[in-house]
Each structure stands twice: as C-alpha cells, then as structure tokens.
Amino acid sequence: MNALSEAGIVHCDLKPDNIMFVSKEQRKIKLIDFGLSLLSSRVRPGVMLQATSYRAPEILLGLPFDHGIDLWGTGCILAFLYLRCNLFRARFGYETVRQVVQLLGQPEDHLLCQGIYTRKYFLEEEGGDGPTWRLKTPEEYMSGTHEKIRTDIRNCKYQCLDDLVHIYPLRSPADHEDRRQFVDLLKCLLTVNSEKRISSSRALQHPFIMMSHLLDPGYESYLCDSMEMMSSCNEENPSKPKLPKS
C-alpha cells in the first residue's frame, strides 16, 4: 500500500480475492488485478469502485477520494482474516452504509452535505441548530428503490470494534495486548472521515506492525512464538527470526 501511494496509484479493488500467494511453498503474497486502478491525479468523485462490502464511505457518498480508499479496503481485509467473514456483509450500498453507521458511527454532517449520493441513503431534517442528517430506515430506502434490503445481516457478537478483542477466548495477557493493538490499527484504517484516516506510511509504524507492544519481558514467549510463525518470510535466515529492537 505504501509503494502504491508513493507511486501515485489507487488500486480501487482491494479484497481477499485479489491477494495471492506467490507459490504453495512460500507465504509471501502479492496484490493482483489492477484493472480498476487509477492514477491519483485522475480520480473523480462519483465513480463507483470497490466491492460492495469493501467500499469506503467516500465512494458510497460520492465524495472526493484518494489512496485512502485502499487503506479502508486493507482494514476490511484484516478484519476478514480475523473474523473469517466480512466485517460488512452487503449486496447493496445501503446495507454497507447502514452497517458502517451502526458499527463506526455516522459520517459528519459537513461530509454528508458534500456527498453526491448522500440523499440516496440519508434524509435531511431541520433541527434546533440547523439542518441535520439521519440514515433512512430500510423501509424508507426500499420505498424509493427496487432493492430488497436485509435488516438482520450484521454480526451481533460485537457492537463496536473494541468488542473484537474478546470474541475469541484469550490465552494470555500478551494475547490480550496483541489483540488490543490489532483493533487499534483497525480503527485507524476504518476511520469514516478519510481526512483523519491513517496513511500507509504511518500504519507501517503502528505498534501492531512494529510489535513494539510485545517488548515487555513478560511477553517474551508470546513474541518468540509470533516471530517463529513469521520466520518463513525471512529470506536471510528463516531459522533465526529477528526480534524487534527495544
């Protein structure tokens, strides 16, 4: 993602189907299918890109976008690997928008005011402090479309991203801290406002990626086990994984 960002390329179609193993023997991966990719200088708001369950809020609403949509897609992929199912399970844009609002909160009013497609999903209402937006109910949305919206597709095991830490049994304090940092990275990648979303260069320095949160002496066994699992990615000397520097 960082290499694409530096090259000024937006992939536009990040999903598990487009991540492949280099070979059966290696655990190295590669990103494929650049058929929808765009130069950052040529992106235009309003174009519909990305698979429905991986579609960033700025694409759904028709806002200006950039490489940030690929970071959103990356967050959705990491959640998929952790949950073993899509974080947002949707066939239509409204289903994605509704689940994003339920899990992450509604986009800020100033973003909704700018969106080309905002009125497709939201209604503007007069409030005491001026106009505000609210998400259409499934019935309101379906009354204006021919889409049959499902209302019971969100996983009830979690009400917010922080709940993901506890959906599987915890094995140790180190496991808890590792999951907590993983979820923090997810929250950075899945920030609804793209202007506040983490960049790829900053994501590379996140504690979960750097494993800096596991330098506590009490976490040494967990850290060594983690490094051992990743050792096949170390071409220099796969038998001796490199521990992060304190």
Spans of at least 5 consecutive residues whose pLDDT stays below 50 are 236-241
CA-atom Rg in angstroms? 20 Å
Euclidean distance between termini CA atoms:
26 Å
Largest sheet: 2 strands, antiparallel
Number of helices: 11
Mean of all residue-level pLDDT scores: 91
Secondary structure class reads mainly alpha
What percent of residues are in strands?
A: 5-15%
Shape: globular
The count of DSSP E runs of length 2 or more, i.e. the number of strands, is 6
SSE string, helices as H and strands as E: HEEEEHHHHHEEHHHHH
Q: What's the arrangement of strands in the largest beta sheet?
A: 1-4
Helix content: 25-40%
Summarize the structure.
The chain has 246 residues and is mainly α. It is built from 11 helices and 6 strands.
